[in-house]
Amino acid sequence: MIVVGITGASGVIYGVRLLEALNELNIENSLVISDAAKTVINHELERDVEDVIKLADNYYEFHDLTASINSGSFKFDSLAIVPCSMKTLSSIANGYGANTITRVADVALKEHRKTVIVPRETPLRSIHIENMLKLSQEGATILPAMPAFYSEKETVQDQINFIVGKILDSLEIENNIYKRWE
């Protein structure tokens, strides 16, 4: 099972597309959406949050620290936080598990489960880079949403699929969601 956290940074389409891809690949998933992400989903996607929740096999409330995914005894394979706000990144890097997303990240890291963080901020301050370094040193994969331009006629959807494909690659999930370099 893959846990997907969507936080309140621009780029929520990456998290939504990841859920769609996991469904296409028949991979069980669990979802947590931050309060800020719900606002961004409505703004960026003009989509109802309930439609996004329906993409998940399991849904956990953002402020439910008693959620089963917040326990090291709960078995899940990996975690992807897509997109990851700098607030969430900072909380995880500094061990501040004050909500379901930051707590499940704490569990994933302490249990040495695959953890992919897709930060969304530009430009970056030194503290942002330091926090990414902390998480990288703990075993997390830091995967900024930086698209590739392998062909001349790529669409925005191709760019989204490229990032989601790279997330799936980092989680060691076979996929051909994006055009690979030949």
Automatic annotation (TrEMBL):
Residues the entry annotates as binding FMN: 8-10, 34, 85-88, 120
Group of enzyme by EC: transferase
Catalytic reaction list: dimethylallyl phosphate + FMNH2 = prenylated FMNH2 + phosphate
EC number: 2.5.1.129
Record keyword Protease present: no
GO MF terms held by the record: carboxy-lyase activity; flavin prenyltransferase activity
Positions contributing to dimethylallyl phosphate binding: 150, 166
Superkingdom field: Archaea
Classification via InterPro entries: Flavin_trans-like, Flavoprotein, UbiX-like
Keyword Cytoplasm: no
Keywords from the UniProt entry: Flavoprotein, FMN, Lyase, Prenyltransferase, Transferase
Ranges where the Flavoprotein domain occurs: 2-171
Cited function: Flavin prenyltransferase that catalyzes the synthesis of the prenylated FMN cofactor (prenyl-FMN) for 4-hydroxy-3-polyprenylbenzoic acid decarboxylase UbiD. The prenyltransferase is metal-independent and links a dimethylallyl moiety from dimethylallyl monophosphate (DMAP) to the flavin N5 and C6 atoms of FMN.
Family to which the UniProt record says this protein belongs: Belongs to the UbiX/PAD1 family.
HAMAP family cross-referenced by the UniProt entry: ubiX_pad
Protein name: Flavin prenyltransferase UbiX
Gene: pad1
